[in-house]
Amino acid sequence: MTHRIRGFRIADREAMIAFADSLPDHDLLFLGRDLKHPRVIAAWLGAIAEGWIDSLIAEDDGVIVGTAALVQDPLGWSAHVGEIRLLVSSERRGSGVGRDLLEAMLQVAGERELAKLTAAMTPDQVGAIALFESLGFRGEALLRDQVRDRAGNPHDLAILSFDAGRAAAQHHAYGFGAN
Predict the structure, then answer these.
(1) Cβ partners under 8 Å of residue 173, min gap 6
(2) What architecture does CATH give domain 4-173?
(3) 77-128, pLDDT tens digit by residue?
(4) CA proximity to 64, closest of 34, 30, 106, 35
(5) Structure pTM?
Protein backbone atom coordinates (compact mmCIF):
# COMPACT_ATOMS: atom_id res chain seq x y z
CA MET A 1 0.00 0.00 0.00
CA THR A 2 1.18 3.47 -0.80
CA HIS A 3 0.39 6.61 1.09
CA ARG A 4 0.40 10.29 0.29
CA ILE A 5 1.60 12.95 2.73
CA ARG A 6 0.07 16.42 2.74
CA GLY A 7 -0.96 19.19 5.09
CA PHE A 8 -3.83 18.69 7.54
CA ARG A 9 -6.66 21.08 6.71
CA ILE A 10 -10.14 21.97 7.90
CA ALA A 11 -11.78 19.68 5.30
CA ASP A 12 -10.03 16.74 7.04
CA ARG A 13 -11.78 17.31 10.37
CA GLU A 14 -14.22 14.38 10.18
CA ALA A 15 -11.56 12.04 8.76
CA MET A 16 -9.25 13.00 11.64
CA ILE A 17 -11.99 12.29 14.19
CA ALA A 18 -12.48 8.85 12.59
CA PHE A 19 -8.71 8.25 12.65
CA ALA A 20 -8.46 9.25 16.33
CA ASP A 21 -11.40 7.00 17.19
CA SER A 22 -9.62 4.07 15.52
CA LEU A 23 -6.53 4.39 17.75
CA PRO A 24 -6.12 2.58 21.06
CA ASP A 25 -6.41 5.01 23.99
CA HIS A 26 -2.89 4.06 25.10
CA ASP A 27 -1.50 5.54 21.87
CA LEU A 28 -2.86 8.96 22.81
CA LEU A 29 -1.46 9.25 26.34
CA PHE A 30 1.54 11.38 25.35
CA LEU A 31 -0.54 14.08 23.67
CA GLY A 32 -1.65 15.93 26.79
CA ARG A 33 -5.19 16.18 25.42
CA ASP A 34 -7.63 13.50 24.33
CA LEU A 35 -7.63 13.58 20.55
CA LYS A 36 -10.92 11.66 20.51
CA HIS A 37 -12.79 14.82 21.54
CA PRO A 38 -13.90 16.92 18.53
CA ARG A 39 -13.11 20.13 20.48
CA VAL A 40 -9.47 19.06 20.69
CA ILE A 41 -9.33 18.64 16.92
CA ALA A 42 -11.02 22.05 16.49
CA ALA A 43 -8.36 23.60 18.76
CA TRP A 44 -5.65 21.81 16.74
CA LEU A 45 -6.98 23.30 13.50
CA GLY A 46 -7.12 26.72 15.16
CA ALA A 47 -3.49 26.41 16.25
CA ILE A 48 -2.52 25.50 12.67
CA ALA A 49 -4.30 28.61 11.40
CA GLU A 50 -2.49 30.73 14.00
CA GLY A 51 0.90 29.28 13.05
CA TRP A 52 1.65 27.50 16.34
CA ILE A 53 1.43 24.03 14.81
CA ASP A 54 2.53 22.57 11.50
CA SER A 55 0.66 19.36 10.78
CA LEU A 56 0.79 16.67 8.14
CA ILE A 57 -1.33 13.63 7.42
CA ALA A 58 -0.60 10.42 5.58
CA GLU A 59 -3.57 9.06 3.69
CA ASP A 60 -4.47 6.05 1.60
CA ASP A 61 -7.41 6.60 -0.75
CA GLY A 62 -8.68 9.48 1.37
CA VAL A 63 -8.38 7.57 4.67
CA ILE A 64 -5.98 9.00 7.24
CA VAL A 65 -3.42 6.37 8.28
CA GLY A 66 -1.03 8.65 10.16
CA THR A 67 -0.42 12.18 11.31
CA ALA A 68 2.46 14.26 12.55
CA ALA A 69 2.52 17.67 14.17
CA LEU A 70 5.29 20.10 15.02
CA VAL A 71 4.21 22.21 17.97
CA GLN A 72 6.06 25.36 18.96
CA ASP A 73 5.54 28.45 21.05
CA PRO A 74 7.18 31.33 19.19
CA LEU A 75 6.43 33.71 22.10
CA GLY A 76 7.92 31.55 24.87
CA TRP A 77 11.38 31.13 26.33
CA SER A 78 11.76 27.97 24.30
CA ALA A 79 10.84 29.41 20.91
CA HIS A 80 13.87 27.55 19.50
CA VAL A 81 12.33 24.19 20.50
CA GLY A 82 9.62 22.24 18.73
CA GLU A 83 7.74 19.17 19.89
CA ILE A 84 7.00 16.46 17.36
CA ARG A 85 3.88 14.36 17.82
CA LEU A 86 3.44 11.30 15.64
CA LEU A 87 0.55 8.84 15.34
CA VAL A 88 0.22 5.92 12.93
CA SER A 89 -2.72 3.54 12.64
CA SER A 90 -2.16 0.13 14.17
CA GLU A 91 -2.55 -1.54 10.78
CA ARG A 92 0.12 0.59 9.10
CA ARG A 93 2.88 0.43 11.71
CA GLY A 94 6.13 -0.88 10.28
CA SER A 95 5.14 0.08 6.72
CA GLY A 96 7.16 3.31 6.50
CA VAL A 97 4.28 5.72 7.20
CA GLY A 98 5.78 6.88 10.51
CA ARG A 99 9.27 7.29 9.02
CA ASP A 100 7.95 9.30 6.08
CA LEU A 101 5.95 11.57 8.38
CA LEU A 102 8.85 12.04 10.80
CA GLU A 103 11.32 12.81 8.01
CA ALA A 104 8.85 15.36 6.57
CA MET A 105 8.51 16.97 10.02
CA LEU A 106 12.29 17.15 10.40
CA GLN A 107 12.34 19.06 7.12
CA VAL A 108 9.66 21.45 8.38
CA ALA A 109 11.62 21.95 11.62
CA GLY A 110 14.68 22.82 9.55
CA GLU A 111 12.67 25.38 7.58
CA ARG A 112 11.50 26.86 10.90
CA GLU A 113 15.17 26.97 12.00
CA LEU A 114 14.41 25.18 15.25
CA ALA A 115 17.53 24.28 17.26
CA LYS A 116 16.04 21.43 19.27
CA LEU A 117 13.17 19.00 18.91
CA THR A 118 11.50 16.85 21.52
CA ALA A 119 9.13 13.92 21.38
CA ALA A 120 7.23 12.18 24.19
CA MET A 121 5.90 8.64 24.30
CA THR A 122 5.29 5.86 26.76
CA PRO A 123 8.38 3.65 27.19
CA ASP A 124 6.54 0.55 25.96
CA GLN A 125 6.18 2.08 22.49
CA VAL A 126 9.45 0.46 21.46
CA GLY A 127 8.80 0.74 17.71
CA ALA A 128 8.25 4.47 17.95
CA ILE A 129 11.32 4.92 20.14
CA ALA A 130 13.42 2.92 17.66
CA LEU A 131 12.14 5.05 14.77
CA PHE A 132 12.97 8.34 16.50
CA GLU A 133 16.39 7.06 17.59
CA SER A 134 17.14 5.90 14.02
CA LEU A 135 16.76 9.52 12.91
CA GLY A 136 18.98 10.99 15.62
CA PHE A 137 16.75 11.45 18.66
CA ARG A 138 18.19 10.40 22.02
CA GLY A 139 16.57 9.61 25.35
CA GLU A 140 16.64 12.61 27.63
CA ALA A 141 14.23 11.94 30.49
CA LEU A 142 11.82 9.47 31.98
CA LEU A 143 8.94 11.04 33.86
CA ARG A 144 7.43 8.47 36.18
CA ASP A 145 3.63 8.33 36.52
CA GLN A 146 3.36 11.44 34.33
CA VAL A 147 0.08 10.58 32.58
CA ARG A 148 -3.07 8.72 33.54
CA ASP A 149 -5.27 6.70 31.24
CA ARG A 150 -9.07 6.85 31.26
CA ALA A 151 -9.19 4.33 34.14
CA GLY A 152 -6.84 6.47 36.22
CA ASN A 153 -3.84 4.16 35.89
CA PRO A 154 -0.50 6.02 35.85
CA HIS A 155 2.01 5.62 33.02
CA ASP A 156 5.58 6.78 32.58
CA LEU A 157 6.50 9.17 29.80
CA ALA A 158 9.80 8.99 27.92
CA ILE A 159 11.18 12.24 26.51
CA LEU A 160 13.50 12.07 23.52
CA SER A 161 15.33 15.04 22.02
CA PHE A 162 17.09 15.96 18.80
CA ASP A 163 19.83 18.58 18.62
CA ALA A 164 19.34 20.07 15.17
CA GLY A 165 22.53 22.12 15.34
CA ARG A 166 24.64 19.07 16.11
CA ALA A 167 22.94 17.07 13.36
CA ALA A 168 23.53 19.88 10.83
CA ALA A 169 27.21 20.10 11.82
CA GLN A 170 27.61 16.33 11.40
CA HIS A 171 25.90 16.40 8.02
CA HIS A 172 28.17 19.26 6.91
CA ALA A 173 31.29 17.48 8.22
CA TYR A 174 30.41 14.32 6.29
CA GLY A 175 29.27 16.11 3.15
CA PHE A 176 25.57 15.22 3.37
CA GLY A 177 23.29 17.66 1.62
CA ALA A 178 26.16 19.27 -0.32
CA ASN A 179 25.40 20.29 -3.87
Answers:
(1) none
(2) 3-Layer(aba) Sandwich (3.40)
(3) 999 999 999 999 989 988 899 999 999 999 999 999 999 999 999 999 999 9
(4) 35
(5) 0.88
